Amino acid sequence: MRASDADRERVAGVLRDAAAAGRITLEELQERLDATFAARTYDDLAPLTADLPAEPGPQVPAQGGAAPARGAEQDEPLVLRAKVGNVVRRGHWRAPRRIQVSNPMGSTVLDFRSAQLPDGPVDVDLATSWGETRLVLPDGATAEIRVNSSWFGLVDSRVPEAPAPPAPHFVIHGDMRGGSLKVRYKMRLEEMFGLHD
């Protein structure tokens, strides 16, 4: 059976948790993540977590049954975690309706310009206090900012807040105490952060 983006994200979450717990090294994590996002089938994914504590595996449709609806996959949140490090999404990737980022001590860059976006608003929940977060939105997109930056935080958005259908709309919330958030259509020094049109 072909694996979905949601299946690959679930396996990646298990691997990141295993690395955080010290079960695999950072080098092993990178190797397995590369294999995860290159996987095409469930058989490709299974060996990547076979030596780790049991986690709920991908739900394989019963033979002859229908595959999960596309809308159901979009409802599953994309969870991105790092304790000390970088979280980066750029290029062509599928952004679901909900994205949860936990990266308290590192840099986070989410570039949505070439991402496949869902119908309706994209909800981005940030737990990135003490880190730097940069969101790059498609031209014309709007973003409502509800971030708690009350304690030495910085929020700098250069995009309109009011929705302007059919342009994409983002709702960004969470904690930015001691950290910084920048929301742009296109940022300076993009070469430094590996972002390209």
Commentary on this structure:
The protein has helices at residues 5-20, 26-38, 42-45, 70-75, 190-193, and strands at residues 78-81, 86-89, 98-102, 107-111, 122-127, 132-136, 142-148, 154-157, 169-175, 180-184. The protein is 22% helix and 26% strand. It folds into 2 domains: 1-68, no CATH class; 70-197, no CATH class. Helix 1 runs antiparallel to helix 2. The longest helix has 16 residues, at 5-20. Mean pLDDT is 81; it is low at 55-73 and 190-197. The strands form 2 sheets. A 5-stranded parallel beta sheet has the order 1-3-5-9-7. It contains 5 helices and 10 strands; from the N terminus they run ααααββββββββββα. It has 197 residues and is of the alpha/beta class. It is globular, with a radius of gyration of 18 Å.
Give the topology.
Blueprint: H1 5-20, H2 26-38, H3 42-45, H4 70-75, E1 78-81, E2 86-89, E3 98-102, E4 107-111, E5 122-127, E6 132-136, E7 142-148, E8 154-157, E9 169-175, E10 180-184, H5 190-193
Parallel strand pairs: 1-3, 2-4, 3-5, 4-6, 5-9, 6-10, 7-9, 8-10
Helix pairs in contact: 1-2
